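Minutes, project check-in

Agenda point 3 was the complex the collaborators sent over. CS summarized: two entities, 676 residues total, and the question is how they sit relative to each other. Sequences were read into the notes so everyone works from the same version.
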Amino acid sequence: MAVSIQGKQSPSDARQYWDLVRVLVRRNLKVRYRGSLLGVYWSLLNPLIMTGLYTAIFSAAFASYYGNSVLNYVLAAFTGLVVINFFSTATVQALTSVVANGSLLNKVRLPISIFPVSVITANIFQFLVGSLPLLAVMTLLTSRSIVNLLALILPILALVLVSWGVGFFVSALYVFFRDLPYFYELVVFVLWISTPVFYPSKIVPDQLKSLLALNPLSSVIESVRQIALSGQPPDLGLILGALLSGVIILGIGWGCFQWCDRNSWIYSRWKSFD
Amino acid sequence: MDQIDLVVEAGEKVGIIGANGSGKSTLLKLICNILEPTSGRIWVRGSIAPLIELGAGFDAEISVIDNITLYGVMLGFSEREMRRRTRSILDFAELQDYASVPVKALSSGMVARLGFAIATDIQPDILILDEVLSVGDESFKNKCQQRIEQFWQANATILLVSHDLNFLQKSCERVIWLERGKIKMAGAADEIVQAYIESVNPAKPAVFEDESELDEFELGEDELPQDQAIAAAVDPQAAAAIDLPTQEIALPASAQLGSVVATRMFLINDAKQLIHTVPFRSPFYVGIEYVVTAPINKLQIGFYIQDQRDRIILEPATHNWLPLTGTICEPGNHCLYAKIPAPLLVPGRYSIFGIGAYEEGFGHHYRLLESLLRFDVELTEEDGDEWFGQELVHPSIEWTLE
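CS then shared the predicted structure for the full assembly.
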């Protein structure tokens, strides 16, 4: 088959991609918070309430690990919850993003990656206006150092990279395996429990500690806590560890996504069922 | 799809025709790069509006204005550009009052209008239109046609899929006829459309010899002997230019509605002869031949009888008399007869105007809204004193005296 159609040259793809992300992010946020009173601030309220809950239940038991200070427990739990919350919301939303837009992809030519990218970007935006200001204030209060405030960006960048990588991976996988949401729910729960969010990492048995170190979110949370709560100058080792795992996961996720996209004859067959 | 070898030059207008499932939409998807060919290559140079269905990119939850931006950006335009165009799009779609309403609150006709307005406002180099003209009401359709004609003149490349063969013939230079994924024919529009029509309506002019076939408003399979074919089929276009044809007309391609193709209309008397004058006191029959090319669920067909001052005197339609389902829908050739009783139409000249068909699931469609056949109702000697020349119609009115 050979078809050839003439016209004039097309504008740049990168600009269109960026425009698309912006428009889709706005649509995403508008649809999500239409009619909602607090809107984007739910992404702050949610970890705050959860922190209150964990504090009420666990602070008495775990306070000894936090220098006998309930406040320290509150701060640790909050930082952990902000991170895990961002990760689980962003990736769960990314998971369905490609399939949910299957009928659209079947009718309009769009770069497929635009959907997980815009979902995660929408979550970044929520994070920037919701939780980040509070995290920044906490950092300034405890460390009184602008260096820590700036360094806070780095583990958060690592978090974004991890979420992005996982988001790419699961959104592509879901096209082929429709059982994935149920399985992924379990994965998120395992991550939630295996990440030292509401418990101190010291209580984990030594044999399991090395296993938990594989959890990329652990290194992100460690690094965020070190920068925001310890009052010490940022620990470069922790930051680099977090960034490294972020880059690796993004690489794997993006690679899988590209592979699925390239083998688009399979992909389009799946798309056509939506 | 197989063995598609096709070059479209810049500025060309190409129509694509073919039965349902022949691969028209698939070809467009391949051109838009929505699907990739399993073998072979496609080159597209220029900005292409990569959509094959109007309104496909709309998000029902967000407002009309936001959808305009979203849609335009999906078609490759910048956000700023789309904001600039919002006003003219809303104006064209006649949705100024709905700018901040979510799209889910619009009617389907409004959504289609919005889609068309955006797709054509952004003026891509290559415009792909898949059955866009089957949406919206008549006045909007006209507006759409005008806008497409502007595109025609602006030297844009256009690929048009439509079942409106008349329109294709008028507006495309080239037509490609697809059949089962292959190019059956390609070439000059007139030639291909004509060949296509001939293939879907096997020509079967007919006269009715058997009395029993002609019951009141009867529906029957057209299985009449070929040797009694009527000579001199009227060329509709040539005849219309001078005067309306009388007796019978082979309907042009626009008498197609989805899977229903009306092929011929004719007038006959009780003796099954083709007629052009009707005696005042004699009933007559309007015959409509049509072909159902693919299974459908429901169908009704009707027409108007207009007087000389273009007033609609009668509007016979099958659903008043026949079921919507069953034989009327079965694939194959059919012939409908509408018996017009007498006395009813007063002496004068009449035309049969429009032939409408209503296919369930497609919405309400009228095709061929034009005068098709002319006939005269004439007084004979013996009814000289029955009609006083005042009425519009003259049915038999029963009188009683007590």
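Noted in discussion: Residues 13-199 of chain B form a domain with the Rossmann fold fold (CATH 3.40.50.300).
Follow-up: revisit at the next meeting once the mutant set is ready.
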